[in-house]
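Support reply, case 0932

Customer input (verbatim):
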Amino acid sequence: MHHDLTHGDLPLKIDLHTHILPERWPDLAERYGYGGFIRLEHHAPCRAKMMVDDQFFREIESNCWDPIARIADCDKTDVNVQVLSTVPVMFSYWAKPEHTHDLSQILNDHIADVVARHPSRFSGLGTLPMQAPDLAIQELERCVHELKLPGVQIGSNINKWNLSQPELFPIFEAAAELGAAVFVHPWEMIGQERMKQYWLPWLVGMPAETCLAICSVIFGGVLERLPKLRIGFAHGGGSFCWTIGRIEHGYHARPDLVQIHNTRNPREYLGRFYLDSLVHDADVLRHLIKLVGAERIALGSDYPFPLGEATPGEMIAAMTDLHETTIKRLLAGTALEFLNLDRAVFLKGR
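Our regenerated output:
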């Protein structure tokens, strides 16, 4: 099934985890009548400040919005395809549902347009107003049917709802029925009030947040009830794979607390969900391959942000102990399967 993943001498390389913004969008505070939204301040050539009202959030460069700049970067690092998703701060789950829905449409239309203009170089994941499941399902259906996107990116929690929250289940159910992939990205990290220094929300909070999301879909019975759901998690699943022994032990030791909604051993779900490869440590990736299999791990770089891998796939390529078929699977095969994409479309691009 996963033959022909090379083109020329180089294996096909698909980066599952990249972020993009439109170059411009409407003034959201003016559009919706209140603040708290991100705006871009283009203050220098090829540079912009992401601002929350008048508070600085992050500096970005033109490769965050310009497809041509992205393609040039990809060509330098032999990346054939980027899977585009919005920057998580844009999720805006805290806003009024109809406004998050409207913003999701703006962002999704932009991603779909970039993909349509460069179909052999990009694929894309939409964003949803997750705090309003009915609207989220409506936009999910539009992403799949109208925009031809293979799936969506969602946050690891929705206004403090964990992903086991019953209100969210119909969204996962709709994704499974539509064959849409769901990529979970950490955001609004737990414990931030104790992480004021040292960039700790990104270094400690994100791995914990992702582990919490995986435990939620396991213990909440989401994976058990939806065997067809294709769901993936960023950053190698965060701390989950490192604490599965403890998690499994807790399942056995305190069934009264753990086995409330699902009585199946959490270890049985290893290999049931997808992960990206972004762990920054070859031995960690080896352990993930042993735990879940290369069939469930896809190259992800977090382009264009500094916590990402500057040359996507560089660490994988340096792991000389990996078999060539494993490397091809990590670099492209898993992403193609997770997103249910046709590799032939992308082989035309190089």
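We compared this against your earlier run and they match. Two observations from our side: The domain at 6-21+62-347 is CATH 3.20.20.140 (TIM Barrel). The first helix runs from residue 28 to 32. Please reopen the case if you see a mismatch on your end.
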